[in-house]
Amino acid sequence: MINLYIDFDGVLVDTINETYKMMADRGISLSDSKNVGKFYRELDWNDLLLNTQEINDAFKNIRILQESKIFNISILTTVHSISEIKAKVSYVRSKNKNIPIICVPKGVEKCDIVNPLNSILVDDYGGNLKPWIECGGLGIKFTSEQSDKYITINSLDELLKSKSILRTIQNSINYNEKPMKLVMA
């Protein structure tokens, strides 16, 4: 099975757009890293997750991906505080009790927490994908816009439905130098 790591914010739940609106309403500039960090550390994550939309049936699609037996799935999420960890774990457990959640402290690269070699990261932030790819992983950008730099998807079910993405995965991920055979569900 292929290790598939899925980002939380901006891939599973639309917390990025929601928190950006909240910061704009409070006059916090996204370039003000000190106040942005403070905002995220002090945020009521339970309330945010209660009032924020899931993106494109993300958890239904995770179940479909799990059932395919192609992917070993984990959620890999950047966190700013213990309260954020608790809220995200509680939220994920309410949707899927069988998926590992790996929390990455803000300022630490995701590829320093888990081994990206021959693994996939689906993330909406190119700043996470670049080091992942440099360390031997396959980075897939979660966006509705096309990119010259990355494979792009805007729904997790595209990992199974798109033959070109499955071909790219098969060509990029190489366990023990043996070609993998991926079967469409």
What this model shows, in words?
The chain has 185 residues and is an alpha/beta fold. The protein has helices spanning 15-25, 33-42, 45-50, 58-68, 82-95, 110-113, 126-134, 158-161, 163-172, and strands spanning 2-6, 71-79, 101-105, 120-123, 138-142, 151-153. The chain folds into 2 domains: 2-13 and 54-172, Rossmann fold (3-Layer(aba) Sandwich), CATH 3.40.50; 15-50, no CATH class. The protein is 43% helix and 17% strand. Strands 3-2-1-4-5-6 form a 6-stranded parallel beta sheet, sandwiched between helices. The chain is globular, with a radius of gyration of 17 Å. Mean pLDDT is 91; it is low at 176-185.
Can you tag this structure with a few keywords?
alpha/beta; Rossmann fold; six-stranded parallel β-sheet; 6 strands; globular; disordered C terminus; 185 residues; 2 domains
Summarize the structure.
The protein has helices at 15-25, 33-42, 45-50, 58-68, 82-95, 110-113, 126-134, 158-161, 163-172, and strands spanning 2-6, 71-79, 101-105, 120-123, 138-142, 151-153. The chain is of the alpha/beta class. The chain has 2 domains: 2-13 and 54-172, 3-Layer(aba) Sandwich (Rossmann fold); 15-50, no CATH class.
